[in-house]
User: Fold this.
Amino acid sequence: MSRAEGEWRDTGAGTARAADAGDEPGGIGGPGGIGEPNRGEPDPGARNSTVDRALRVLEAFLVDEPQLGVVELSRQLDLDKSVIHRILATLVRRRFIEQDPVSRRYQIGLRVWELGQRYRAGHQLRDLAEKELM
Assistant:
């Protein structure tokens, strides 16, 4: 099943992008290509990519609720439960998400904290505060 340029198509071996990233204005990354930030705004064409979906799952944990279930995530992100389950299984395996053995709900895992610590080590709090205040 093929769609217009820049949309998704079924290749028989899964879903693939109809146009290469290099064919789009700006290519990979933000408007200027690799290395230029996207400023947190999702590329409309990347909304269905596996990486984008996984990041959306991680971002769902930024809310006040410390634990989320598959059904909640599915509703919140408008993704099929099977997609959510596969993404969560990968994130659990990589320790970005943990599953509570009693409630069977999910929460942020150790790797997210480790990434935060790595970020913190590379950025002085004072420098960050100065940028925000200017």
About this structure: Residues 88 and 124 are 32 Å apart (CA to CA).
